[in-house]
Amino acid sequence: MEAPLLHLALVGTPNSGKTSLFNALTGSRQKVANYPGVTVERKEGFFVTPAGRQVSVVDLPGTYSLRGRSPDEEITRDMVLGRTSGETAPDLILCVADATNLRLTIRLLLELKNTGRPMMLVLNMFDIAARRGVSVDVPKLSEALGVPVVTSIAVRKGGIAELLRRTDEIVAQEQKPIGPNRWQPLTAPELRATQREADRIIAAAVTLPAKPDTWTARIDAVVLHPVAGLFILALILFLMFQAVFAWAQPLMDLLSSGFDALGQFVHDTLPEGLLQSFLQNGVISGVGSVIVFLPQIIIIFLFILLLEDFGYMARAAFLMDRIMGGAGLHGRAFIPLLSSFACAIPGIMATRVIDNRRDRLTTILISPLMTCSARIPVYTLIISAFIPDEQVWGWFNVRGLVMFGLYAAGIASALLMSFLIKFFMLRDYQPAPFMLELPDYKLPRLKSIVIGTYTRAKMFLQRAGTTIFSMMVLIWFLASFPQPPAGATDPAIDYSIAAVIGKTLEPLLAPLGFNWQIAVALIPGMAAREVAVAALGTVYAIEGGKEAAEQIGQMLATKWSLATALSFLVWYIFAPQCASTLAVIRRETGSWKWMAVTFFYMLTLAYLASLVTYQIAIALGAG
Amino acid sequence: MSEQTDIRTSQPLGLAKRGYSGVIQHLAVADAASALTGHELESRLIELGFVEGARVEVLHEGIVGRDPIAVRVENVTIALRRREAMAIIVA
Known about the structure:
The complex is a heterodimer. By secondary structure, chain A is α/β, with parallel strands linked by helices. Chain A has helices spanning 18-26, 71-80, 103-113, 126-131, 138-145, 161-172, 188-205, 214-223, 226-246, 249-269, 274-291, 294-310, 312-325, 334-339, 344-350, 357-366, 375-386, 398-425, 446-480, 497-509, 516-525, 531-544, 546-550, 552-559, 562-574, 579-589, 592-619; strands at residues 6-12, 30-34, 41-48, 54-59, 92-98, 119-124, 135-136, 149-151, 206-207, 391-392, 396-397, 435-437. Among the domains of chain A are: 6-207, Rossmann fold (3-Layer(aba) Sandwich), CATH 3.40.50.300; 247-292 and 445-560, no CATH class. In chain A, strand 5, helix 3 (103-113) and strand 6 form a beta-alpha-beta unit. Chain A starts with 5 loop residues before the first strand and ends with a helix. Chain B has helices at residues 3-7, 38-47, 82-85, and strands at residues 11-12, 21-27, 55-61, 69-73, 76-80, 88-90. Strand 12 of chain A pairs antiparallel with strand 5 (76-80) of chain B.
């Protein structure tokens, strides 16, 4: 008889290495979704133990206690207590501790014991601890805590063998009845008592080195230095954007010519007609023009994941806390805002680490102003078409500088908005506390980074395959029907529904320098920004034939003035974000009102900023 | 406990300079003008390891108003603002 699926849950403080252990256990067999009704990310993975038992493991949000201060922490508490509806209570809790830093985890474990659930303590990163001179008397620790203790090195091959073996052992033992749940929210004196108890147990079973980690101290002396630290932070961000622009190019060229070849193949193989046009102009050039940006998106996520795993993100929050505080933002908002450079959706979801509602709301409202990766296609296309590829001041690329400028404009406007929100809407604002652990630096591990990047890339491709694909089909349809009458001399698109819509909107957008083709592209651009590029591709492809589709950048360079191009770039700094971002804002704030506020304030900003840009550019003779 | 610690007068950690090191005497959450309630602030500080008897050292200060501060508490480093650190009485 097949044994039922064994349910494990990983619990631990933030920075305990839970996620690397999760990756080591499950590899790429992971499922990322949300818990029902809330937007907390639910990460589940599967593996088989050496004894052949099928196991499901969930990676619960990191927490220092079971008090449940935020939605994430409530999930951890409710899952551990078996209170989450539709979720199986864990058969075994793996309490994960960074072996170099046991103090806070042991306190959490003592609190977890009150739940009565079977538990095992996993001393992760045991190799690093040993190297630093931390020595743990494992049997003694296990005896003092009253739970099994295993050591693991999640990042090394075979480093989790003991963990697997002990899991099998525990499962094979006669099932002890699950103890009664005696857990209640702890009072301050009780918390204090458990911390004292934890300290006593650690003193008895663990020998700590006299000196803290010297590498972390040395790096922090520079990285957290008030002046050098900020300089390094700026340098890292600048490098990131240069990398996105420069390193990705060869790969993008490769993808781009691949799609061109595919389009050409379809063109040559199929007879002239609607099907050929649909596949070549609608599907291949549309979806292809978005997938081309995969390398850039991978690079952005790679940077964010590397910085996160290295331990730099918390330092960045430390450096930025007071500076962002001047604009009414919390230091913790730095991480969500930085994630928003990849995509506003994970960014907005990451605002859950901010437990003050007002700080959180402000961060949510401004995170779409951070330049998300979906804007990269738009920026890249326009920049390569209109900005010369030249070097200035030695090794700076002008295009890279313009890109940096667009990012900087996004950041500046976000800070300004935050200041205005604080000033006008949330007057009786009181700064929420900033308390954050600065973990010791760790070398990022390839496997974790690869799995993380892969998951994100997959999400991007899925989006390209669903939302973007369906929008492209719609655009192609609007741009192709009704078909031109027989003997028509104008380009086919002039007779289409798209042209009607575009020309209706044109008067409204003319002061911004936008023609009707742009107006057509802007509409699907609200579903997903990168679609705007694809839509321009489709519109001009149907208008100009296949040569235009292959060379959309050069095509635009002949059709648009510099002023229009600049205005279009500025529009996309502020452009009302994609429909999925709006949906997430609605979900995270629990109100339609804030979603509407976000949409309209961004639309207004976009219109005004483009208007000013275009008019100034015209006045300066760039028309 | 060294002699030096014994003769030092107690002070809030929120006023300590970079390089200061001492031992936590008690938590005085009413003294901190934090946005949190006393109970919440106390609970959080304890959860991050700020309990009586723990050794603390101020490792780093931010650029604006020397705030926030990075504090070594036993073998963990915690960043917090001076406003909240006022609740931690050290000597």
